[in-house]
Amino acid sequence: MTRALLIGLAVVTTAIFVVVPLVYIFVQALGAGWSAYAANIMHPLTLHAIWMTTLVAVIVVPVTVAFGIGAAWLLSKFQFRGRGLLITLIELPFSISPIIAGICYLLLYGRQGWLGGFLARHDLDVLFALPGIVMVTMFVTTPFVVREVLPLMQAQGSDQEQAAVTLGASGWQLFRRVTLPNIRWALLYGAVLATARAVGEYGGVAIVSGSIRGKTNTLPLHVELLFNDLNAAGAFAAATVLTMIALVVLVAKTVLEHRR
Amino acid sequence: MTIQISQLHKSFGQTEVLRGIDLTVADGELVALLGPSGSGKTTLLKIIAGLDWPDAGRLDVDGQDWLRLAAQDRRIGFVFQNYALFPHMTVRDNIAFGLTVRPRAERPGRAQIARKVDELLGFLQIEALGGRYPAQLSGGQRQRVALGRALAIEPTVLLLDEPFGALDAAVRRDLRRWLRGVHDATGTTTIFVTHDQEEAFELADRVVVMDHGRIQQIGDAATIHDAPATPFVADFMGATVALPVTVRGGSVAAPGVDASRVVAPGLPDGPARLFVRPEDLVPVPDPAGPWTVASISNTGSQLRLVLADASGAEVPADLRRRHPAAQGLSPGARVHLRPEAASVFPV
Known about the structure:
The structure holds 2 protein chains of 2 kinds.
Chain A: H1 2-30, H2 34-41, H3 44-77, H4 83-95, H5 98-109, H6 116-121, H7 130-156, H8 159-166, H9 171-200, H10 203-209, H11 219-228, H12 232-259
Helix pairs in contact in A: 1-12, 2-12, 3-7, 3-9, 3-11, 4-7, 5-7, 5-10, 7-9, 7-10, 8-9, 9-12, 11-12
Chain B: E1 3-12, E2 15-25, E3 30-34, H1 41-49, E4 56-61, E5 64-65, H2 71-74, E6 76-79, H3 91-100, H4 110-123, H5 139-152, E7 157-161, H6 169-186, E8 189-194, H7 197-203, E9 206-211, E10 214-219, H8 221-226, H9 231-236, E11 241-248, E12 251-253, E13 270-276, E14 281-285, E15 291-298, E16 302-308, E17 314-320, E18 334-339, E19 343-346
């Protein structure tokens, strides 16, 4: 009896908080019919926002993966002074609101900031341009891969690597044929999480991008702008793209959790 | 390959793990490094492998200075305690690994590698397992694969770290004999680390007993068993009863101890300690003896006794139940002690 009650409660709660809003997005987006939906999606400004978000993810995720492998390798194979501090620093983005990162970048790279003058003199755009968006997104996604790979590398120790070395493997062969295959699922899992975060990031990006339509507008920012324009159908249409990306990530994540 | 090690020192932080190791291993020899954990035996093995580096000393193999050679270039076969097989590769790929990572110019052809792997699978008696992954193997099978992977590169030296540590007793015994066979067939100079005396003596030509970063004694089973070189070796080999004695003119004496069967030639006069195995310590009924039988337990074939003296010191003694001295031993009986064989070291 209690069991049935608890299960029922869980189902109802999930429905109210997750399923209904998700369905509602599609209902609203498709409310005016398929052609209106297609027109909203194919709007040049929406297409540009999709392109921006994709571009940011394509730049950020490989960097996060490379950084994650390097940091996890360093942290698992070596003991050094400040190791604990480094782990804390890498995980810092988890506990800091992305807005704070955005503001820091604004103060650092803005006109009046420490590096603002240097950047202006060399005609380099960081704020209100792609580099700023990429940097904030990188800040937010840094911990994801390290967090997945580090515990695994620590648990595996270095015996396999040492065995490969005694068998004559070079550094690259070691990485390519022993280290990488051992962490591949955790790595992919971390990359999927990082992609989801990079695509969905709003707060930090909102501050450094300036939300210039057709220039620095990412998809989440675009949804908000459309909504503020009272263009609900357009906003919901753009939101379906984000939702579908999220669903793909969810499936990928579930599959990877089984393989890991 | 002849391995020559001289004055090897190694510290981890404040802890000295090797304090001047001198050891020569002859070509084709099978040597065991025996000692308790923390004796430095695994560190010594890793230094020979090139997986660790000494703070001082020399390591020469066939006259070549190996401390200037990276692990990759030493061509050693190293078998890890937990095997360290590559979990994402089949048994075949594991065994072939050392051949497939060779630089293109030295790498054997695909067919040649396959032939070599077949040959090893047969030699190791695991023909049927080539397509399996390590997770699908038993401990003993993994051990064979690990050895096959090491042998595939035709190593100059074979090094094994606690090779049977993770196996149950029956498999251990089997594999031990089998490894001896592998060694005799390949003739590869082999060093293995163990904390198990039986394993060391049964398998090795020579046993190197280590403790606290020093070599305590090198020899065969009989030498180390009968003539331990240091108190540590005596104790480690089971002579766990230590009695204070006095040496005068090569003979040993102590109150309540009949040491007539113990000789200590060449030992300086003065206080010393006598190390004896409980089974070599015979309690002889003696109304004037200073020891009393504190307790007796009967295991059927053996009597396990605890003997105490007036000061409260207790020593164990094991006696065959049918031994003549066993008659007339009951709790409270007074005895003196007669070591049948013992080693004596000056204090």
